Amino acid sequence: KVKQACLFCRDSEIPSNSEGGLYVCMNTFLAFGREHVERHFRKTGQSVYMHLKRHVREKVRGASGGALPKRRNSKIFLDLDTDDDLNSDDYEYEDEAKLVIFPDHYEIALPNIEELPALVTIACDAVLSSKSPYRKQDPDTWENELPVSKYASNLTQLDNGVRIPPSGWKCARCDLRENLWLNLTDGSILCGKWFFDSAGGNGHALEHYRDMGYPLAVKLGTITPDGADVYSFQEEEPVLDPHLAKHLAHFGIDMLHMHGTENGLRDNDIKPRVSEWEVIQESGTKLKPMYGPGYTGLKNLGNSCYLSSVMQAIFSIPEFQRAYVGNLPRIFDYSPLDPTQDFNTQMTKLGHGLLSGQYSKPPVKSEIIEQVMKEEHKPQQNGISPRMFKAFVSKSHPEFSSNRQQDAQEFFLHLVNLVERNRIGSENPSDVFRFLVEERIQCCQTRKVRYTERVDYLMQLPVAMEAATNKDELIAYELTRREAEANRRPLPELVRAKIPFSACLQAFSEPENVDDFWSSALQAKSAGVKTSRFASFPEYLVVQIKKFTFGLDWVPKKFDVSIDMPDLLDINHLRARGLQPGEEELPDISPPIVIPDDSKDRLMNQLIDPSDIDESSVMQLAEMGFPLEACRKAVYFTGNMGAEVAFNWIIVHMEEPDFAEPLTMPGYGGAASAGASVFGATGLDNQPPEEIVAIITSMGFQRSQAVQALRATNHNLERALDWIFSHPEFEEDSDFVIEMENNANANIISEAKPEGPRVKDGSGMYELFAFISHMGTSTMSGHYVCHIKKEGRWVIYNDHKVCASERPPKDLGYMYFYRRIPS
């Protein structure tokens, strides 16, 4: 599986840099550095490891003093990265491999055909010749990895006059506005399925295929000049469509034109864009490299700068530092048998690499003198590689698992989702971002109002272009630019729109129209307006500037603006006030649920078997912050119609006194608990089979641990073992678990009042400590850079390069990170 790097640390990513080398378990084929192989041996009892080491030697000099002519080095047989610090003209590598038997560290040199059994020799050869599993993340290996659809060449497209607008899409069957797919035969826009990453949908695109047989669909929002996400329902997999440009043009989407901007020139041909790159990266300024703890960069794996920028900002926050790096011994000791598949282990490994300072050391004086003598001018900062981390956090995600550029804001929310789902006991560092938004919706005809609350993790500010303070300069620049383009003369120096931050904040707080508003007072659709306020203020406020949009011709556009973002931010005036005197609430009547004809049969008998509750929909709702039992009831009483319909049920019933009580149904003997055990239900009705408990206790674990782990994993033995290793805090509560087991009324625990989403409310005064900037015309291209204020000065993190910032471009950022000022 993994032969290139230790699963717990960075010391052995390049074995020539590590005195201990790399130890590969001959049972699991996972790799460990010298410091961590003992931990794996103690945990598993596995005693046979292959020890890999790369030696670096200075090349033998010829009589004239130069190195001997290059020739193929047969002593290099490991698929490992070489050390970029060493000049290949002066140094050569030699790989060494041997078997090591623990605990006595008995060594057997390899190859050793005479002494080793044939099967062992074959296994050793397989390990030595295996390729790194992360090579697929390299930029050059992504081409042609998807099959070409057999339906692409002769795809039938109906001449029905459908034209797709560049925005404002919604599902034709359920009005959903995310995870939408355009059928390439008839132009229907329908939703996909719900996924683990909160990409919502009710499966209507698939239902449409089953009804009509139209095989290909493209995901809206992924269309770029280089292609798009295309799925074949008939072939049941993502595919390539070589004729995608033609198929999209049939519906008015000019994909090929998206290669250029409005004037037909490519990004790198436009002088203003070059200027943006120079300003944000502080090019032309001699920047001083920074070294030590917290000043370690991340290597770019090929369009992975969005990930690097977000992670640098995340691990500058003390709560994340404490949750992962502060708990390093505990997380590593209780990691599952395969740490590559454990989020907390990989977060801890990455955080330790960034914060320890072990991988960001200044060059010693002798190395500097040697470089000057050799007239070498290469960067001293190599950074650490996030390959293993990226492989885990992006698995099963169609966008982040690709090698294309992504939106840093989308990755931030994806990361928060992963942190929420993999919390360490009761500790959840993402609590610092969570806040409640109060939404006030008013019926324009009756003037009645409804107040609701929702959870959010960032504040999205619109760009108030109409408030630009240099409109005359912009008009003059635009006229000069067009004249220069027409006469093929050099473009004038860029003039950016200067937008007051106060105007963006005002635009955020202004009322907005509600599409398809259903007034419960009129019991019909009507005009409605919505205003949003903060029901709570988070500990850390993340502000996104909404710079990206599409033109009418589907060309991606970016508002290249300068916004005077404040160092100190006061949003206390945006605090929610709730129902005001004189306001009359809209009646508590739910809108009629529109059920597609092909789905009505599913609601003929609303009392479905509790074991058939769609747990994926339950999880999606629970991750929004609603009580688990309420989510189960919502999915149950809406007949498994999907998370969106269940969400409507929650909004209508959330004020009821039994909102979060366990689901009870006549004829099923009380509480429905068939699926609740997945989330840690502890009643006696969830007693695990004794034979499985006996298997776990025979491994040395306490009975209380075995019972708790099996209850939390729906009696799955393998998942229960992983659960025990990743939940050490339950070992301390063993007496409590045993007492519950013997308590006939154990299920009274669930009668406690439900808690809402955990928020850390406080003052609305903040100070800026980090921001992420984007260069390029859209989130699907370009480059990201992060600036962080540390120890009283700004520092720029540009992939592997970490330097003191001289002119931080705070006015050109895309995402801003503010911390609360204690009142």
From TrEMBL:
GO CC entries: cytoplasm
Subcellular location: Cytoplasm
Catalytic activity: Thiol-dependent hydrolysis of ester, thioester, amide, peptide and isopeptide bonds formed by the C-terminal Gly of ubiquitin (a 76-residue protein attached to proteins as an intracellular targeting signal)
Residues covered by the UBP-type domain: 147-255
Residue ranges occupied by any UBA domain in the UniProt entry: 612-653, 687-727
Major location category of this protein: cytoplasm
GO MF annotation terms: BAT3 complex binding; cysteine-type deubiquitinase activity; cysteine-type endopeptidase activity; K48-linked deubiquitinase activity; proteasome binding; protein-folding chaperone binding; ubiquitin binding; ubiquitin protein ligase binding
Positions that bind Zn(2+): 171, 174, 191, 204
EC id: 3.4.19.12
Record domain USP: where: 296-821
The protein, known as: Ubiquitin carboxyl-terminal hydrolase
Originating organism: Cavia porcellus (Guinea pig)
Origin organism lineage: Eukaryota, Metazoa, Chordata, Craniata, Vertebrata
